[in-house]
Amino acid sequence: VKQSGRSNYQFYTTELDERAELAHMLEVKLRTALRDGGLRLHYQPVVDLKSGKLVGAEALVRMEDKEGAAIGPDKFIPVAEATGLIADLGEWVAAEACRQHDAWLREGLSATIAINVSPLQFKQASFTDKLAGIIAGSGIDPSCLEIEVTESAVMENVTEAIEILQRIKSLGVKVALDDFGTGYSSLSSLSTLPLDKLKVDQSFVRRLERDPASRAVTEAIITLGQRLGLDVHGEGIESESTLRYLAAQGCDQAQGYWFSRPLPPEEFARWVREKGL
Ligand code: C2E
Ligand code: CA
Ligand code: CA
Ligand code: CA
């Protein structure tokens, strides 16, 4: 027993060491990227299901290292959160999204831009002030900016979330509840939150065709959103049949690989022109 306990322990520490090393390497890369302009935003189109028109884009952050390889946010956002770098990263994302919105407007491309806000950032008292400063500095029409915050971040402390959301909304910015259906929403709380949109989590959308339970959840979310006067947005749409299904259910907006993967800004603009959207 002692033997195996010891070897398990050794195995465990090695794995921990490796993880710590990886996290440290990512932290160094992230610090460098923040300092030297090594971050990029890619944009994924959001389409209105009734008109078929482009209505917006979700900005998704990417990190490029010196060799030009891209590292995904699923890897470095947790590191940014653990090291406190998330505040700087979040500010950069907001400012860059506003700058891109302005650049596109000048080219005649108008799209609401959604940015993701980490739960940690969302709870920082300074966040709303910083956002207000970025909006004022960029001259963006605040109603063209949307904040995405996850359901779980908001439901953790509803009273606090309402206050924060009210402050954000008072800037004129839109608010979407991201990854909806995976957290533990109290339905009565949901109706008290100042929101504009529910984003149905992709885990349901991607299983729609093979899983009746995912259809049930998706339909319930759409009905709930409609009753609460919120837009409902499906993400993770990978097939035309899923798209048709969501449209038939009354889902308002859609996003997914079926339309396009997240694209660098120039490619996004080209995509919009080529599709005539
Ligand atoms: P999310 O906010 O739920 O973003 C959607 C993710 O799903 C994106 O992954 C997107 O590329 C991917 N996706 C979109 N359509 C499809 C589809 O049809 N099929 C599949 N399989 N995937 C699809 P990405 O870009 O790797 O981002 C992962 C997560 O990282 C995001 O999930 C978000 O939580 C976080 N993230 C991304 N950018 C930022 C940011 O600027 N700030 C913060 N705090 N978090 C971010
Ligand atoms: Ca999102
Ligand atoms: Ca999501
Ligand atoms: Ca609606």
TrEMBL record:
Residues 23-276 form the EAL domain. Coiled coil: none annotated. It comes from the Bacteria. This is Diguanylate cyclase. It comes from Noviherbaspirillum denitrificans. The lineage of its organism: Bacteria, Pseudomonadati, Pseudomonadota, Betaproteobacteria, Burkholderiales. The chain holds residues 897 to 1173 of 1181 of the full protein.
